[in-house]
Design brief:
heterodimer; A: MetI-like fold; 14 helices; 2 strands; B: 262 residues; 2 domains; six-stranded mixed beta sheet; four-stranded antiparallel beta sheet; 39% helix; binds adenosine-5'-diphosphate; transmembrane (chain A); AA_ABC_transptr_permease_3TM (chain A); transport (chain A); ArtM/GltK/GlnP/TcyL/YhdX-like (chain A)
């Protein structure tokens, strides 16, 4: 009797598998292999083709005027984005406010600057001098304080920054509004019941939670701004693209220079993507949950440590 | 009891006179009259949609009223008196006036991006401008009192429903309220977690906190409430000592409601 039951338990023990292995993901392997093959073929054709002129690419990649253009692009994108975020946040709050005038003003602004194509807006700003040759600051119906020629205020860079900021802030406003709306109404109610003023509530409770929904589309917007700066080349602002255009207009090395430009836009976007990861992590505090991979690994280590 | 309290302190904790509340054309509260004495525990019962939440929310001015007057310890919240009229005060003044009325919600509404401790000290440090160390000290004491001393660094998502609601109660208490409003504090909880929250409420009642509790826990009301108010369709149908209203209700509607819930 006992012999049999002992034998049983021994066999039962052998029946317990030693490890549980996640399902093999063949699809991932097949897709991976295909991608590697295509990339290899594309690279081989690019390097075999002399028209790409890779030596020229290498020569211009770090050339002074290209790097200068790159810096201007970065400056332009940063300033335009900073202004857009500030204006966008203000517009989103105006849109939510119970003050109907503020609400209508914000609504009209967003409608207007989303409707006008950026290219058209830039050309209009650039030619503002034709409309208002002079800009002056004065007391309404009173004396004029000072006057300047429009062209000294709206320089090429000024027009570029103002144009980008006007255009992008309208989009940022919608991103922020969506974020504010995404925060559970109970959070505002609790803050209000604790005696927090609207400003305190927005700053300390609503915005930090809204950021979870805001950061991904906002980064997307930032990436788009970085690339959109290339449009200001039409008003001869020597940013990255225009700097390259100046060179290839002279040397006819069009393809390698456009590849240099492409390369730098890729780098900028990569940097932003990495930054996005860290910003998202910061605003996801309080959210339970690990990635599937981390969770699996942790569980296995914990089990093994227990053995 | 009301008379007693008014005699002893001279002022009621809550005084509701002739209050009407409408949402557009929907008349939610009719001619409300209710007086709560300091230290009294009032349980509000009644069918869903009868206006219990609305009444609580009118008391701390989360909702505006359309007629009548509500005073908390003799003071108006959200209005000031000018002769025959009540005039809405600015948001800032309303916020200041409602600081001393704590509110606990059915859905807890803890700030999800802050830890339990941060949830507690947020308003005392920012609204009442208490020094951080002082607020933290009191917050830790309160977390200990609701049995969550070891959870001060946890985020709401890492706590059970019962624990979240106890943090929410501690958060309201951290403002040193003179009046606590509870809107169905246990209705979102699994049955086995209801007890731990009701224990905290019982504790508060024993410590002379003035409380108004909307609840469906008739057993709790019978045990803890001084006064039970039965509401239906935006009217107070019946109010009186807990034992009387719950065990020998005068009105047919109260009887039918109590039969249904117990
Ligand atoms: N914000 C609101 N807007 C319009 N109607 C509302 C609003 N809040 C509550 N009501 C209505 O008021 C009535 C009373 O609601 P409520 O006070 O929540 O009842 P209870 O808490 O007793 O269940 C219900 O008919 C409800 O539909
Ligand atoms: Mg309710």
């Amino acid at each position: 009797m006992t012999v049999i039951s002992d034998a049983m338990t021994a066999r039962d023990k052998n029946d317990i598998p030693s490890r549980i292995v996640p399902r093999s993901k063949y699809g991932t392997w097949i897709a991976g292999a295909l991608v590697v093959l295509f990339v290899f073929l594309a690279l081989r054709s690019a390097f075999a083709n002399d028209n790409f002129a890779w030596p020229a690419f290498g020569r211009y990649l770090f050339s002074e005027s290209i790097l200068l253009g790159l810096v201007r692009t970065i400056e332009l994108a940063l300033i335009a984005m900073a202004l857009s975020i500030l204006a966008g946040m203000a517009l989103a709050m105006m849109r939510q406010s119970s003050n109907r005038v503020l609400n209508a003003v914000a609504g009209t602004y967003i409608w207007l600057f989303r409707a006008v194509p950026l290219l058209v807006l830039l050309l209009l700003l650039y030619n503002l001098a034709a409309l208002y040759p002079e800009i002056s600051l004065s007391v309404p119906f009173g004396p004029i304080l000072f006057t300047m020629e429009t062209n000294t205020v709206i320089t090429v860079a000024g027009a570029a920054i103002i144009g980008l900021a006007l255009h992008e802030s309208a989009y940022c406003a919608e991103i922020f509004r969506a974020g504010l709306v995404s925060v559970d109404h109970g959070q505002r109610e609790a803050a209000e019941a604790l005696g927090m003023s609207s400003w305190l509530m927005t700053r300390r409770i609503v915005l930090p939670q809204a950021m979870r929904a805001i950061v991904p589309p906002l980064t997307n917007q930032f990436v788009s701004v970085v690339k959109t700066t290339s449009i200001v080349s039409v008003i001869s602002m020597p940013e990255l693209l225009y700097s390259a255009q100046i060179i290839y207009a002279r040397t006819y090395e069009t393809i390698p220079l456009l590849l240099v430009v492409t390369f730098w836009y890729l780098v900028l976007t990569a940097v932003l993507t990495v930054a996005q990861h860290y910003v998202e992590k910061r605003f996801n505090r309080g959210r339970a949950g690990l990635s599937d991979y981390t969770a699996r690994k942790l569980s296995r280590l914990t089990l093994e440590a227990g053995k | 009891m009301i008379d007693l309290a008014e005699k002893s302190t001279g002022v009621a904790a809550v005084e509701i006179r002739g209050v009407h509340k409408l949402y557009g054309s929907l008349h939610v509260l009719h001619e409300m009259d209710l007086v709560v004495a300091p230290g009294e525990v009032v349980c509000l019962i009644g069918p869903s949609g009868s206006g219990k939440s609305t009444l609580l929310r009118c008391i701390n001015n989360l909702e505006k009223i359309q007629a009548g007057v509500i005073k908390v310890f003799g003071e108006l919240i959200g209005y000031r008196r000018a002769g025959e009229r009540l005039i809405e005060t600015t948001k800032r003044e309303t916020c200041r006036a409602r600081q001393h009325v704590g509110m606990v919600f059915q859905q807890f509404n803890l700030f999800s991006h802050l830890t339990a401790l941060q949830n507690l000290i947020e308003a005392p440090t920012r609204v009442q401008r208490l020094p951080r160390e002082k607020a933290t000290e009191y917050a830790k004491e309160l977390l200990g009192k609701v049995g969550l001393a070891d959870k001060h660094a946890s985020y709401p998502a890492q706590l059970s429903g019962g624990q979240q609601q106890r943090v929410a109660i501690a958060r309201a208490l951290c403002m040193r309220p003179k009046l606590m409003l509870f809107d169905e504090p246990t209705s979102a909880l699994d049955p086995e977690l209801v007890g731990e929250v009701l224990d905290v409420l019982r504790d508060l009642a024993n410590n002379e906190m003035t409380m108004m509790v909307v609840t469906h826990e008739i057993g709790f009301a019978r045990q803890v409430a001084d006064t039970v108010v039965f509401m239906d369709e935006g009217r107070i149908v019946e109010q009186g000592p807990a034992a009387q209203v719950l065990d020998s209700p005068r009105h047919e509607r109260t009887k039918r409601f109590l039969e249904r819930v117990s």
